[in-house]
Design goal:
- The complex is a heterodimer of chains A (161) and B (786).
- Chain A is α+β, with helices and mostly antiparallel strands and 161 residues long.
- Chain A has two domains: 75 residues, Ubiquitin-like (UB roll); 72 residues, DNA polymerase, domain 1, CATH 1.10.150.
- Chain A contains five helices and five strands.
- The radius of gyration of chain A is 16 Å and the shape is globular.
- Chain A starts with a strand and ends with a helix.
- Chain B contains 21 helices and 31 strands.
- In chain B, α10 runs parallel beside α11, α11 packs parallel to α19 and α16 crosses α17.
- Chain B is globular.
- The N terminus of chain B is likely disordered.
- The chains are: A alpha+beta (161), B alpha+beta (786).
- Chains A and B meet through α2, α3, α4 and α5 of A and α1 and α18 of B.
- Chain B: InterPro entries: Ald_Oxase/Xan_DH_a/b (IPR000674), Ald_Oxase/Xan_DH_a/b_sf (IPR036856), Ald_Oxase/xanthine_DH-like (IPR016208), AldOxase/xan_DH_MoCoBD1 (IPR008274), AldOxase/xan_DH_MoCoBD2 (IPR046867), AldOxase/xan_DH_Mopterin-bd_sf (IPR037165).
């Protein structure tokens, strides 16, 4: 099976590794780099669990080949918090609002919403719903995730002010 | 969601409060450990070769090319595995006299495949990708046989037979009955009959299934990590099949990304992976992908109900009778509990003097059916509520009024029904006030004023409707769950249980209950759930049971440890036990905080030293294990009211509001209760409008991606209002009832009723779920529309 050596930045750290050319980014992050926070829920681009940021934009790691991430910057759930102890405001708000139960969809929700709040720092609840409408959650019924996002957006606006 | 803060009169320092979840810290950072996150050195990967046919004879399996592929370590069929197994079938059926066919699932199919997705062989390779490449090189010589897809057609004479060795497709038959049914019907002034077609789909936890096995040849010991809801059952099955003693198999459930029922089943993949690891002396992992989940993980599916209701002139129920046909799938992977649970749920909320529903369980060439969140109860509730709506319409009664006249009244609690559970125990509704609970929902939903809203909407050309449905749910199925509580000499509190967590906050629940009595600091409590090495016995997660059973055992064990802690501390502090309290990491004299002894010191004191007496005189250690036995189920109840708007042109149904009142007794953690309900409600909306596991006439599945099989997303969720009533059950010391499945149960029935109401100008008659836009358009009578 043909492989290629690729270099990319993940969560601020430069990595060089061999990747089978047919391997998707999700398998590369999880298997080769050991970053298992990114979860694979369907591997056909519908559930959104594997969402990561590629050069700041939310993409499905199951629909992008690892070799396509050559020389680009990837952010996964492990890279959202400013430090190992602290939490990103979205992470703190998810905990405070019971925005996660089993936690499997959570990394994809967080990365999707990180991008969304950068583009739309003062959203309506409806806009939040649309933003996560490509992320499936079977546990929460979504309302607690929406509430958490509104709270995080408030906190982020206040911190920026 | 606009959840009222529940009144929690019995709240303790932690119990009954919205304390932070102990699960969140790791999961929110991406540091959870799900089964696919575990990668021991030397790991190999498995891929299963699955049948593309719904029914076929296997004439031969040729794996030379697959075995020759570089990176492949083994291709295993039943021929290779059989000699290492005590049985080549999974005998997992719950006991019942109802079975007419023995449909034990094979470990791997060798002579015949009976559904698309049935595993035929496994490839073990260096990577999953190579394993899948090799699986594609295995040549199976199939001889296709006639397949049966539809459960109703399956029972007709001349139908194709799902299993070629069987005489018919009647897998089981049973009847639930009491009272003089036919006499009641013979004299009843009103009889209403309905034919209802009720479909439910799969669980679709966002994490599919997975199993990883590692064999330690030094001790001949297997460790199996499985995303199972029932680790102790899995251990027993593995011990039985592999002929190993219990200490030879450890089953661990790591973090589990949702269960919702199908993960309680023991699957062929679990034993195949475990055996492969043993044979190859390498760790082996198999992770189900979503495509496999659609065809290899058990699901719920179709039921056809022909049911009839007899009432008096005032709409009071005199009797219910009928038949139900249930799609069982190709094997008995659990039992007849889904149809039985469906029919049992049907009369439960109401005073039904006489009842008889006969069930026929049909084998089909489809994935086996086992419980999905709700486990048949949404279907039984749907049948009852549709009949009541029909009776109300024909008797010209308000749909809420007919329910008021028939709900089990609050002053008759506890109410002994003539029903029996599957274990033969009488169903006694233990507590609650169903009419009051329904009244709460009706009031909050603005039921009485709805006709005005409806007229106003119609004047604008908008078709709106409202529907109500009640449920009573048997929760907390016994007999027990094991919990031990131990204070280590470090002062750390360790709680170990047979309960298994799959996202429903089990660790938080147990830490709360134990810390409540042992110092109030949950961060000092370490919970081990779902590890057979940590708990000698266990039943696991199903039936909204773990808070009730494991919670009760944790509570009892914590109280015993507390009692001993205070007794020993009293001696060490030379104080009266009654003057002591446990606070944080120490026992102290109330009002004299400097007079204290740490839990660590107490634990060390009673750990014993050779030749010295144990302080306190009550034996060594600070440990208590409990298996509180509770056979009777705690019956929770509730009401859903849905208000919808239907676009008569496109068939789109939009839920404008959903009001849900319920009574699960005391709430250990109100926010978690709301979370469980909301998840269930979303699932119920899916069952009402979106989720449909489709097969064609040849039993080929046709909804095999999440783009075809629609799960509810955030934009489909309506405004939801949850209202709480709290009638503590007398059946357990905490006064709690299960809540994990409640949300899903009445929602399809309420939405169906609301759609029918919205389309009443078109004489729509709703007799099925799910209702896609196509189905809704078909409900409209063009003559009436004109």
């Amino acid at each position: 099976m043909s492989t290629r050596r690729i270099a990319l930045t993940v969560n601020g750290t430069r990595h060089e590794a061999e990747a089978p050319v047919r391997q998707h980014l999700g398998d590369f992050l999880r298997g080769t780099l050991g970053l298992t926070g990114t979860h694979l829920g369907c591997e056909h681009g519908v559930c959104g669990a594997c969402t990561v940021l590629l050069d700041g934009r939310a993409i499905r790691a199951c629909l992008v080949l690892a070799v396509q991430a050559e020389d680009r910057a990837v952010t996964t759930v492990e890279g959202l918090a400013p430090s190992p102890e602290a939490l990103h405001p979205l992470q703190a708000a998810f905990c405070a609002n019971h925005g996660l139960q089993c936690g499997f969809c959570t990394p994809g929700m967080l990365t999707t919403l990180e991008e969304f709040l950068r583009d739309c720092p003062d959203p309506t609840e409806e806009e939040v719903r649309v933003a996560i409408s490509g992320n499936l959650c079977r546990c929460t019924g979504y309302d607690s995730i929406v509430a958490a996002t509104m709270e995080a957006a408030r906190a982020m606006r206040e911190a920026a002010a | 969601m606009n959840a009222q803060s529940p009144h929690q009169p019995g709240a303790g320092r932690l119990v009954g409060r919205d304390v932070p979840r102990v699960e969140d810290s790791a999961l929110i950072r991406g540091r959870g450990r799900y089964v696919d996150d575990i990668a021991p050195p030397g790991l190999l990967h498995a891929a299963f070769l699955r049948s593309p046919h719904a029914h076929a004879a296997i004439r031969g399996i040729e794996a030379v090319a697959a075995r020759a592929l570089p990176g492949v370590h083994a291709v295993l069929t039943l021929a290779e595995l059989g000699p290492h197994l005590t049985d080549t079938r999974l005998v997992v059926a719950l006991p019942s006299p109802a079975y007419r066919l023995e449909l034990h699932r094979p470990v791997l199919a060798d002579a015949e495949v009976t559904h698309v997705g049935e595993a035929v062989a496994v490839v073990i390779a260096d990577t999953r990708a190579i394993a899948e490449d090799a699986a594609a090189l295995v040549e199976v010589d199939y001889d296709p046989l006639p397949a049966v897809a539809d459960c109703v057609a399956a029972l007709e004479p001349g139908a194709p037979i799902a299993h070629s060795g069987a005489a018919s497709n009647l897998a089981a038959e049973l009847t639930l009955e009491y009272g003089a049914v036919d006499a009641a019907f013979a004299t009843a002034p009103h009889r209403f009959a309905e034919r209802l077609s009720i479909h439910r789909g799969g669980s679709h936890s966002i994490e599919c299934r997975g199993v990883l096995a590692r064999h330690d040849p030094l001790d001949d010991r297997l460790t199996v990590w499985s995303s199972t809801q029932t680790p102790h059952t899995a251990r027993r099955m593995l011990c039985d099949l592999l002929g190993l003693p219990e200490e030879g198999v450890r089953v661990v459930t790591p973090d589990v990304g949702g269960g919702f029922g199908p993960k309680l089943i023991f699957y062929p993949e679990e034993v195949v992976v475990a055996l492969a690891a043993r044979l190859l002396a390498r760790p082996v992992k198999w992770i189900e992908d979503r495509a496999e989940h659609f065809i290899a993980t058990t699901q719920e599916r179709d039921q056809l109900w022909d049911v009839e209701l007899a009432t008096d002139g005032e709409g009071r129920i005199l009797a219910v009778r009928g038949q139900m046909i249930h799609d069982h799938g190709a094997y008995t992977a659990r039992g007849v509990n889904v149809p039985q649970g469906a029919v049992s749920a049907m009369p439960l909320a109401y005073v039904v003097p006489a009842f008889r529903v006969a069930m026929k369980v049909a084998a089909t060439n489809k994935v086996p059916v086992t419980p999905v969140r709700g486990a048949g109860q949404p279907q039984g509730v749907f049948a009852m509520e549709r009949l009541l709506d029909r009776a109300a319409r024909e008797l010209n009664l308000d749909r809420a009024e007919i329910r008021r006249r028939n709900l089990v009244p609050g002053d008759r609690m506890p109410y002994a029904t003539p029903l029996k559970t599957r274990g033969g125990m009488q169903v006694v509704l233990d507590s609650g006030d169903y009419p009051r609970c329904m009244a709460m929902a009706l009031e909050a939903a603005g039921w009485d004023a709805f006709p005005e809203r409806q007229r106003a909407a119609l004047a604008q050309g908008r078709h709106t409707g409202i529907g109500v449905a009640n449920y009573v749910e048997g929760t907390g199925r016994g007999p027990f769950e094991h919990v031990s509580v131990r204070i280590e000499p470090s002062g750390r509190i360790v709680v170990a249980t047979g309960a298994a967590a799959m996202g429903q906050s089990t660790h938080t629940m147990l830490a709360q209950l134990v810390a409540e009595h042992l110092g109030g600091d949950m961060s000092r409590v370490h919970v081990i759930a779902g590890d057979t090495a940590a708990a000698p016995m266990g039943i696991g997660g199903s039936n909204s049971r773990q808070a009730v059973l494991a919670g009760s055992s944790a509570h009892a064990a914590a109280l015993r440890v507390k009692d001993k802690v205070l007794h020993v501390a009293a001696g060490l502090l030379e104080a009266d036990e009654g003057d002591l309290e446990i606070e944080g990491d120490a026992v102290r004299v109330k009002g004299v905080p400097e007079m204290k002894v740490t839990l660590a010191a107490i634990a060390r004191a009673v750990a014993g030293a050779p030749g010295f007496a144990i302080p306190g005189g009550r034996g060594p250690g600070l440990i208590a294990a409990e298996e509180v036995v509770i056979d009777a189920m705690a019956y929770a109840n509730g009401t859903a009211v849905a208000e919808v708007e239907v676009d008569a042109e496109t068939g789109e149904a939009r839920i404008l509001a959903l009001t849900f009142s319920h009574d699960c007794g005391n709430a250990l953690h109100p926010r978690i209760v709301d979370g469980q309900l909301m998840g269930g409600i979303a699932h119920g909306i899916g069952n009402a409008l979106f989720e449909h596991m489709r097969y064609d006439e040849e039993a080929q599945p046709t909804s095999t991606t999440l783009a075809d099989y629609l799960l509810v997303t955030a934009t489909e969720m309506p405004p939801v209002r949850i209202l709480h009533m709290q009638s503590p059950t007398p059946l357990n010391p905490l006064g709690i009832k299960g809540v994990g499945e409640a949300g899903v149960i009445p929602v399809p029935a309420a939405i169906a009723a609301a759609i029918e109401d919205a389309l009443s100008p078109f004489r729509a008659h709703v007799t099925r779920v799910p209702l896609s836009p196509v189905d809704i358009v078909a409900l409209i009578d063009p003559a009436a529309a004109a």
